[in-house]
Amino acid sequence: MANVIELSADQLKKAVESQHGCTATLAQSVPVKETFGGKTVWEGVVHVFRIDGHPKAKKAYAWSSPIEGSDKRRFFAVLHLPPITSPVEAVRAAIVAESRSAK
Questions:
Q1: Which of 15, 40, 47, 95 lies 20 to 30 Å from 34 when distance is taken between CA atoms?
Q2: How far apart are CA 45 and CA 48, in angstroms?
Q3: What's the average pLDDT block by block, 10 residues per block, for the chain (103 residues)?
Q4: Cis, bond preceding 82 (omega within 30 deg of 0)
């Protein structure tokens, strides 16, 4: 089981570095459960990375989710910049952005 977590963290590190042009170091992993209207809309682990080389952000939040109807995963890498100041807020912002783009 540890290999799955390590592989995921390594892939997420690469996603943060490639999407934001910086170097990332895993700081911690935080379980997140986001609910809306009494239903769970996302549940998983968000990896918090310290980042170097970005002009504004010192941290980034990253996670992956399965793509519906596929065996592939989508990687999310969200910078710690207000109003996003926690793993929960990063997930919430990504959910809102996805729901807007789906309309």
A1: 15
A2: 10
A3: 65 96 97 92 94 97 89 92 96 88 72
A4: no
